[in-house]
Protein backbone atom coordinates (compact mmCIF):
# COMPACT_ATOMS: atom_id res chain seq x y z
CA UNK A 1 0.00 0.00 0.00
CA UNK A 2 1.48 3.39 -0.96
CA UNK A 3 2.46 5.83 1.75
CA UNK A 4 -0.32 8.47 1.64
CA UNK A 5 1.36 10.75 4.15
CA UNK A 6 -1.71 11.28 6.35
CA UNK A 7 -0.09 9.32 9.18
CA UNK A 8 2.38 12.19 9.68
CA UNK A 9 -0.43 14.13 11.38
CA UNK A 10 -0.59 11.58 14.18
CA UNK A 11 3.09 10.75 14.60
CA UNK A 12 4.60 11.75 17.92
CA UNK A 13 3.09 15.02 19.13
CA UNK A 14 2.44 16.49 15.66
CA UNK A 15 -1.32 16.76 16.15
CA UNK A 16 -0.97 18.49 19.52
CA UNK A 17 1.71 20.81 18.10
CA UNK A 18 -0.60 21.93 15.30
CA UNK A 19 -3.38 22.63 17.78
CA UNK A 20 -0.89 24.53 19.94
CA UNK A 21 0.08 26.60 16.90
CA UNK A 22 -3.58 27.33 16.29
CA UNK A 23 -3.87 28.65 19.84
CA UNK A 24 -1.03 31.09 19.12
CA UNK A 25 -2.87 32.22 15.98
CA UNK A 26 -6.11 32.68 17.96
CA UNK A 27 -4.30 34.53 20.74
CA UNK A 28 -2.69 37.02 18.34
CA UNK A 29 -5.94 37.46 16.39
CA UNK A 30 -8.32 38.00 19.25
CA UNK A 31 -6.03 40.19 21.36
CA UNK A 32 -5.49 42.35 18.26
CA UNK A 33 -9.22 42.48 17.55
CA UNK A 34 -10.06 43.52 21.13
CA UNK A 35 -7.34 46.20 21.34
CA UNK A 36 -8.01 47.39 17.78
CA UNK A 37 -11.75 47.65 18.46
CA UNK A 38 -11.28 49.75 21.59
CA UNK A 39 -8.81 52.10 19.87
CA UNK A 40 -10.95 52.15 16.72
CA UNK A 41 -14.07 53.28 18.58
CA UNK A 42 -12.13 56.23 20.01
CA UNK A 43 -10.67 57.08 16.58
CA UNK A 44 -14.09 56.80 14.95
CA UNK A 45 -15.60 59.21 17.46
CA UNK A 46 -12.70 61.64 16.98
CA UNK A 47 -13.21 61.56 13.19
CA UNK A 48 -16.75 62.92 13.64
CA UNK A 49 -15.43 66.04 15.38
CA UNK A 50 -15.24 69.34 13.51
CA UNK A 51 -11.44 69.68 13.74
CA UNK A 52 -10.08 69.47 10.18
CA UNK A 53 -6.52 68.89 11.40
CA UNK A 54 -7.56 65.97 13.59
CA UNK A 55 -9.63 64.43 10.82
CA UNK A 56 -6.74 64.81 8.35
CA UNK A 57 -4.26 63.10 10.68
CA UNK A 58 -6.60 60.19 11.33
CA UNK A 59 -7.39 59.93 7.62
CA UNK A 60 -3.67 59.72 6.79
CA UNK A 61 -3.26 57.09 9.51
CA UNK A 62 -6.01 55.01 7.90
CA UNK A 63 -4.58 55.40 4.40
CA UNK A 64 -1.13 54.35 5.63
CA UNK A 65 -2.51 50.97 6.68
CA UNK A 66 -4.58 50.62 3.51
CA UNK A 67 -1.75 51.48 1.14
CA UNK A 68 1.22 49.79 2.82
CA UNK A 69 0.99 45.97 3.01
CA UNK A 70 0.67 44.47 6.48
CA UNK A 71 3.76 42.38 5.79
CA UNK A 72 5.81 45.56 5.37
CA UNK A 73 4.42 46.91 8.66
CA UNK A 74 5.47 43.67 10.36
CA UNK A 75 8.98 43.90 8.92
CA UNK A 76 9.35 47.57 9.83
CA UNK A 77 8.10 47.07 13.39
CA UNK A 78 10.13 43.91 14.05
CA UNK A 79 13.37 44.51 12.16
CA UNK A 80 13.63 48.32 12.19
CA UNK A 81 11.89 49.92 15.16
CA UNK A 82 12.92 47.34 17.77
CA UNK A 83 16.69 47.65 17.08
CA UNK A 84 16.42 51.40 16.51
CA UNK A 85 14.68 51.99 19.83
CA UNK A 86 16.76 49.24 21.52
CA UNK A 87 13.60 47.51 22.69
CA UNK A 88 13.57 43.73 22.98
CA UNK A 89 10.13 42.82 21.71
CA UNK A 90 9.02 39.32 20.73
CA UNK A 91 7.56 38.43 17.37
CA UNK A 92 4.17 37.76 18.97
CA UNK A 93 4.12 41.15 20.69
CA UNK A 94 5.13 42.82 17.41
CA UNK A 95 2.32 41.01 15.60
CA UNK A 96 -0.26 42.05 18.20
CA UNK A 97 0.95 45.66 18.00
CA UNK A 98 0.78 45.84 14.20
CA UNK A 99 -2.55 44.02 13.92
CA UNK A 100 -4.06 46.16 16.69
CA UNK A 101 -3.02 49.38 14.91
CA UNK A 102 -4.39 48.04 11.63
CA UNK A 103 -7.65 47.05 13.32
CA UNK A 104 -7.92 50.46 15.00
CA UNK A 105 -7.57 52.21 11.63
CA UNK A 106 -10.24 50.08 9.95
CA UNK A 107 -12.65 49.98 12.91
CA UNK A 108 -12.28 53.73 13.25
CA UNK A 109 -13.45 54.18 9.67
CA UNK A 110 -16.36 51.81 10.22
CA UNK A 111 -17.41 53.72 13.36
CA UNK A 112 -17.11 57.06 11.54
CA UNK A 113 -19.22 55.81 8.64
CA UNK A 114 -21.87 54.41 10.96
CA UNK A 115 -22.12 57.62 12.98
CA UNK A 116 -22.20 59.91 9.95
CA UNK A 117 -24.91 57.79 8.33
CA UNK A 118 -27.34 58.57 11.14
CA UNK A 119 -30.29 60.69 9.93
CA UNK A 120 -29.86 64.33 10.94
CA UNK A 121 -33.42 64.59 12.21
CA UNK A 122 -32.57 62.16 15.02
CA UNK A 123 -29.80 64.45 16.21
CA UNK A 124 -32.06 67.47 15.89
CA UNK A 125 -34.80 65.66 17.82
CA UNK A 126 -32.36 64.84 20.61
CA UNK A 127 -31.14 68.42 20.74
CA UNK A 128 -34.75 69.63 20.86
CA UNK A 129 -35.27 67.42 23.92
CA UNK A 130 -32.33 69.15 25.58
CA UNK A 131 -29.82 66.29 25.37
CA UNK A 132 -26.14 67.19 25.64
CA UNK A 133 -23.59 65.97 23.06
CA UNK A 134 -22.55 63.14 25.37
CA UNK A 135 -26.16 62.09 25.89
CA UNK A 136 -26.81 62.23 22.14
CA UNK A 137 -23.97 59.79 21.54
CA UNK A 138 -24.89 57.59 24.49
CA UNK A 139 -28.65 57.28 23.97
CA UNK A 140 -29.20 57.86 20.23
CA UNK A 141 -26.15 57.64 17.99
CA UNK A 142 -24.00 54.84 19.44
CA UNK A 143 -26.81 52.27 20.00
CA UNK A 144 -27.90 52.62 16.37
CA UNK A 145 -24.37 52.86 15.00
CA UNK A 146 -23.44 49.56 16.66
CA UNK A 147 -25.99 47.77 14.49
CA UNK A 148 -24.44 49.21 11.34
CA UNK A 149 -20.91 48.54 12.54
CA UNK A 150 -21.21 44.88 13.46
CA UNK A 151 -21.28 43.18 10.02
CA UNK A 152 -18.29 45.18 8.75
CA UNK A 153 -16.41 44.71 12.01
CA UNK A 154 -16.90 40.95 11.99
CA UNK A 155 -15.74 40.76 8.37
CA UNK A 156 -12.62 42.67 9.39
CA UNK A 157 -12.06 40.24 12.28
CA UNK A 158 -12.18 37.34 9.80
CA UNK A 159 -9.60 39.07 7.59
CA UNK A 160 -7.35 39.64 10.59
CA UNK A 161 -7.48 35.97 11.60
CA UNK A 162 -6.50 34.90 8.08
CA UNK A 163 -3.77 37.52 7.75
CA UNK A 164 -2.05 36.28 10.92
CA UNK A 165 -0.45 33.61 8.72
CA UNK A 166 2.04 36.35 7.75
CA UNK A 167 3.53 36.43 11.25
CA UNK A 168 5.52 33.32 10.41
CA UNK A 169 7.80 35.64 8.41
CA UNK A 170 8.93 37.45 11.57
CA UNK A 171 9.68 34.22 13.39
CA UNK A 172 6.44 33.53 15.24
CA UNK A 173 5.87 29.80 15.74
CA UNK A 174 2.19 29.51 14.88
CA UNK A 175 0.17 26.88 13.08
CA UNK A 176 1.60 27.46 9.56
CA UNK A 177 5.20 27.42 10.83
CA UNK A 178 4.61 24.19 12.78
CA UNK A 179 3.06 22.68 9.65
CA UNK A 180 6.19 23.60 7.66
CA UNK A 181 8.42 22.01 10.32
CA UNK A 182 6.40 18.77 10.28
CA UNK A 183 6.55 18.60 6.46
CA UNK A 184 10.30 19.26 6.35
CA UNK A 185 11.04 16.58 8.96
CA UNK A 186 8.97 13.96 7.15
CA UNK A 187 9.63 14.88 3.52
CA UNK A 188 11.72 11.75 2.79
CA UNK A 189 9.55 9.29 4.66
CA UNK A 190 6.22 10.78 3.55
CA UNK A 191 6.64 13.01 0.46
CA UNK A 192 2.86 13.56 0.20
CA UNK A 193 2.51 14.82 3.76
CA UNK A 194 2.24 18.47 2.67
CA UNK A 195 -1.22 17.78 1.22
CA UNK A 196 -2.50 16.46 4.54
CA UNK A 197 -0.73 18.95 6.77
CA UNK A 198 -1.83 22.01 4.80
CA UNK A 199 -5.26 20.42 4.34
CA UNK A 200 -5.55 20.10 8.12
CA UNK A 201 -4.42 23.71 8.58
CA UNK A 202 -7.08 24.74 6.04
CA UNK A 203 -9.72 22.98 8.15
CA UNK A 204 -8.46 24.68 11.34
CA UNK A 205 -8.69 28.15 9.76
CA UNK A 206 -12.12 27.28 8.40
CA UNK A 207 -13.35 26.22 11.84
CA UNK A 208 -12.19 29.55 13.32
CA UNK A 209 -13.39 31.86 10.53
CA UNK A 210 -16.63 30.20 9.41
CA UNK A 211 -18.58 30.97 12.62
CA UNK A 212 -17.50 34.62 12.30
CA UNK A 213 -18.64 34.68 8.67
CA UNK A 214 -22.01 33.17 9.57
CA UNK A 215 -22.41 35.66 12.41
CA UNK A 216 -21.73 38.53 10.03
CA UNK A 217 -24.30 37.22 7.53
CA UNK A 218 -26.83 36.86 10.33
CA UNK A 219 -26.37 40.47 11.43
CA UNK A 220 -26.57 41.69 7.83
CA UNK A 221 -29.81 39.78 7.34
CA UNK A 222 -31.27 40.93 10.66
CA UNK A 223 -30.24 44.58 10.51
CA UNK A 224 -29.80 45.08 6.81
CA UNK A 225 -32.65 47.50 6.65
From TrEMBL:
TM region positions: 20-46, 58-81, 195-213
Short name of any one Pfam family annotated for the protein: BPD_transp_1
Keywords linked to the UniProt accession: Cell membrane, Membrane, Transmembrane, Transmembrane helix, Transport
Subcellular location: Cell membrane
Ranges for domain ABC transmembrane type-1: 22-216
InterPro entries tied to this protein: AA_ABC_transptr_permease_3TM, ArtM/GltK/GlnP/TcyL/YhdX-like, MetI-like, MetI-like_sf
GO molecular function list: transmembrane transporter activity
Membrane topology, as annotated: Multi-pass membrane protein
GO BP terms in the entry: amino acid transport
Major localisation: membrane
GO cellular component terms listed in the entry, alphabetical order: ATP-binding cassette (ABC) transporter complex
UniProt family annotation: Belongs to the binding-protein-dependent transport system permease family.
Matches recorded under NCBIfam families: HEQRo_perm_3TM
Listed name of the protein: Amino acid ABC transporter permease
Lineage: Bacteria, Bacillati, Bacillota, Bacilli, Bacillales
